[in-house]
Automatic annotation (TrEMBL):
The chain crosses the membrane at residues 24-43, 79-98, 105-123, 151-169, 200-221, 277-299. This is Branched-chain amino acid transport system permease protein. PANTHER family: BRANCHED AMINO ACID TRANSPORT SYSTEM PERMEASE, HIGH-AFFINITY BRANCHED-CHAIN AMINO ACID TRANSPORT SYSTEM PERMEASE. It is found in: Cell membrane. Its main location: membrane. It comes from Catenuloplanes niger. One of its GO terms (cellular component) is plasma membrane. InterPro entries: ABC_transp_permease (IPR001851), LivM-like (IPR043428). It is a multi-pass membrane protein. GO terms for molecular function: branched-chain amino acid transmembrane transporter activity.
Length: 318
């Protein structure tokens, strides 16, 4: 499996150079989406928690980086602050919310996102419904990223860092304790596992992943608005994690890649001559439901675990 990971890494490094410039934006957004999905997969697959508000932490990281940069602070400082602010927000809301379980927790996290979008759309400090404008390009050490190629490698570097942290967490003692708590909370607690504390830590770490991706997103687009972080985006992250396979390292990458490519293909189909103007949006929304239904019916554990079972690869090697 190590050879497969090395090959995947080399391919990911080569793709931005080989892609036509008009497709680099898709690559950047795919890498950022995969970064958020890694956190969702960790939260659902290892901590047994479902969040329908992950896009709220994506937004918090983006606005934190954007606001710091527009107020004169170095963009690098803004990018470093983005995951910290998102994690702090997750600790603040997670302490009371993580007392809930199952669909109650999912609805509560959804409510958090709706409240956040309401605050952003009415807050003059965040640009209100018009949005936050004038975010400078990312720069560090006197080097400024001016084109999509630079942001493609920045997004890839962020994804690599997040994957490294994710891999170390799931194979650590904390990761093993979380898996035990996800299958039997009472038994894990009886064995001395601090279930609540570990779950809150994973909730904050997944939010930090989303916040870091949000920071790159802010500098890449140079503009933020509440409409950039709809509720559908949170559902998209959950679908990607479920389709790729929960509880695997490669699952969120595969899920994000499959869904993004499908959505792009259907968007291209919907913009063909003769198609109605609403076709791209309808086709894009429909793909989430259809792919999720197909995955639940035929690949209930997700793509990666199913492939591993077919090839008889031990789960720990994923």
């Amino acid at each position: 499996m190590r050879a497969a990971w090395i090959a995947a890494g080399l391919l990911a490094l080569a793709v931005p150079v080989l892609l036509p410039e008009r497709h680099l934006a898709v690559y950047v957004l795919l890498a950022l989406t995969a970064t958020v999905t890694v956190g969702v997969s960790m939260l659902m697959g290892y901590a047994g928690q479902v969040s329908l508000g992950q896009a709220s932490f994506y937004a918090i990281g983006a606005y934190a980086a954007g606001l710091l940069a527009t107020h004169g602070l170095p963009p690098l400082l803004g990018l470093l602050a983005a995951p910290l602010v998102a994690a702090a927000a997750a600790l603040l809301v997670g302490a009371p919310l993580l007392r809930l379980r199952g669909h109650h927790l999912a609805f509560a996290t959804l409510a958090v996102q709706l409240i956040l979008l309401g605050l952003l759309s009415r807050g003059e400090w965040a640009g209100g419904a018009i949005g936050l404008q004038g975010i400078p390009r990312f720069s560090a050490g006197g080097v400024q990223l001016r084109d999509d190629l630079g942001y493609a490698y920045l997004a890839l570097a962020v994804l690599a860092v997040v994957m490294l942290v994710y891999r170390n967490v799931v194979v650590s003692r904390v990761g093993r304790a979380l898996r035990a708590a996800a299958t039997g909370e009472a038994a894990a607690a009886a064995c001395g596992v601090p279930v609540g504390r570990y779950r809150l830590a994973v909730f904050a770490l997944s939010a930090a992943f989303a916040g870091l991706a949000g920071g790159v997103y802010a500098f890449y687009l140079g503009y933020l608005s509440p409409g950039s972080f709809p509720v559908l985006l949170s559902i998209e992250f959950v679908v990607m994690a479920a389709v790729g396979g929960l509880g695997t390292v490669a699952g969120p990458l595969v899920g994000a890649g499959v869904i993004t490519v499908l959505v792009q293909a259907l968007t291209l189909l919907g913009t063909q001559p003769g198609m109605p103007g609403y076709a791209p949006a309808v086709l894009s929304y429909a793909v989430y439901g259809l792919v999720l239904v197909v995955a639940v019916l035929y690949l209930p554990r997700g793509i990666v675990p199913s492939v591993h079972s077919a090839l008889r690869i031990p789960r720990g090697k994923s």
